[in-house]
Amino acid sequence: MDPDRSLLTTLMLARGDVDRAAERRGDADWIAARRRDPRSRCLQVHGGGARVIDDGGRPRLDLGPAADATGDLTFLGVGDDGVAFFAEHAAERDGDGWGDLRTVGGLLDDRDAGLLVTAVALDNWLRTHPRCPRCGTPTESSSAGWSRRCPADGTDHFPRTDPAV
Fold first, then answer.
1. Digit-coded pLDDT (tens) for 91-146
2. Within 10 A of 50 (CB to CB), how many other CB atoms are there?
3. What is the DSSP string of 105-162?
4. What residues does 148 pair with on adjacent strands?
5. Side-chain half-sphere exposure of 116, counting CA atoms within 13 A
6. Which residues, including other chains, have CB under 8 Å from residue 104's CB and lie 6 or more apart?
């Protein structure tokens, strides 16, 4: 039986066209340069959602300059045009203009849907796993936000990658 791959095009969690550039996550100089680049964009994420704006009746992510971000950032990837994307982990949802996967996810274009899914997943993991599971020491961000390192015992910790069914 030949699977019908066209069915995957409508699955919101399967969309996205940003290269996550995993090979760049350990290059602190490259990440810092992308963060300073005026073309690099950043979305604020918290509690399962991100800032969104209305673009003529259709939502899109509110992507500000990454250089203006003041909080912890996670590198999300690079678009086809070379623009780097980051997520800023907001301390709280201040004001209006927030959307989550259920309310806006299916209405976003492929790029924004992929960025939102990735940012929300990493934000949730970062908030729920602040300590080393072996010794309880607070961990530090590494690999541009895609892993946590324990300064006490040197172990690295990564988010779960369970498949969505």
1. 888 888 999 988 898 899 999 999 999 999 999 999 999 999 999 999 999 999 99
2. 29
3. GGGS-HHHHHHHHHHHHHHHHHHH--B-TTT-PBPEEEGGGTEEE-TTT--EE----P
4. 141, 157
5. 30
6. 52, 59, 116
